[in-house]
Amino acid sequence: MSATDNLRRIQERIGAELFRKDRQTRYLVKRSEEEQALEAVFDRRTLFTLYSMINRGLLDYLNGVVRSGKEARVYWGRKDERDVAVKIFYTVTTSFKNRTIYITGDRRFQGVPTSGRTMVYEWAKKEFKNLTLARDAGVPVPEPLHVEKNVIMMEFIGDYGIPAPTLAELGSGTQKDYNAVLVSMKKLYRHAGLVHGDLSEFNIFKYKGKIMLFDFASAVERAHPMADELLVRDIKNINRFFSKVGVSTLKAEQILKRVKST
Ligand SMILES: Nc1ncnc2c1ncn2[C@@H]1O[C@H](COP(=O)(O)OP(=O)(O)O)[C@@H](O)[C@H]1O
Ligand SMILES: [Mg+2]
User: Fold this and answer.
1) How many CB atoms lie within 10 A of CB 29?
2) CATH 3.20.20.70 is right for the domain spanning 164-260
3) Which ligand has its closest atom nearest to the C-alpha of 70?
4) 215 is catalytic
5) Under CATH, to which class is 28-162 assigned?
6) H or E stretch at 144
């Protein structure tokens, strides 16, 4: 048997195990397609990371893809009867080049390579850390559960494997949502010492009547040389969206002052 055949057999076996059948429930995704997609997208090391998480009881199984992005795929998984979101960063990607700006200047990244697998692992670790800091600061974010190599596991926001709508998907937002976003930005800055860096209607869920920030991959520390620039951009994005949906917004400078004031 050739090395490729061998690898494929291992991947098939692991893929089947990751998508262990759950006969109790009916799901939206055709598993065989999912399994094939998993093999096509992830290399052997990623499959082994997931497999190892399952063997160590950190994860029960994966149910299907929630969304595929440029840099990561989000899966719906299960752990102890609970839905979890499993965000898996591609290890072979070119779009990470765009991230160098976030990493250069972040002292947490000193001595870390700016390309390759190690960098992707650092990137996952950083998003996980940012989520933890945000949550500890009282910002509504998905609860971070586990990080390993290029895999992040967190609380699933939504029901029955369907993610809660983002503000972008809803195409609406209220004054209360706007105020809550501003309060979250301030808490994030003051208490977590972070700027989201990619904040917009695309990275805010509305779930059970409340807003929740997510996608902390681009967040930077307050001390980052680009922190102010990113904060202003976040504010402008938020203002643009809320004024579009008819909410009266504050001036960007006023918000900036408010976020940065003690
Ligand atoms: N914790 C979560 N619970 C449920 N769905 C999620 C969760 N995190 C992400 N998703 C889904 O995956 C999509 C992409 O996630 P995101 O973290 O924004 O990655 P990207 O870097 O691709 O933008 C989200 O729009 C949402 O639909
Ligand atoms: Mg996103």
Assistant:
1) 17
2) no
3) 1
4) yes
5) alpha beta
6) strand 144-148
Alpha carbon of 211 to ligand 1 centroid (Å)? 14
Query: What is this structure's pTM?
Result: 0.87
Annotated active-site residue 198? The verdict is: yes
Which residues of the chain form CATH 1.10.510.10?
164-260
Instruction: Tell me which ligand sits closest to the C-alpha of residue 216.
Output: 1
**pLDDT (tens digit, 0 to 9) for every residue of the chain, 262 residues total?**
676 776 667 666 677 777 764 434 444 445 566 666 665 667 788 988 998 999 999 999 888 889 888 889 999 999 999 999 999 999 875 455 556 666 666 767 666 666 688 889 999 999 999 999 999 999 999 999 999 999 999 999 999 999 999 999 999 999 999 999 999 999 999 999 999 999 999 999 999 999 999 999 999 999 999 999 999 999 999 999 999 999 999 999 999 999 999 8
Q: Are the CB atoms for 183 and 191 separated by under 8 Å?
A: no
Residues lining ligand 1, CB < 6 A?
A: 66-67, 69, 71-72, 74, 85, 87, 142, 154-158, 163, 166, 203, 214-215, 217
| Of the candidates 198, 150, 201, the residue with the CA atom closest to the CA atom of residue 174 | 201
Q: Please give the Cα distance from 234 to 259 (Å, whole number).
A: 12
Q: Which of 106, 177, 215, 234 is the catalytic position? A: 215
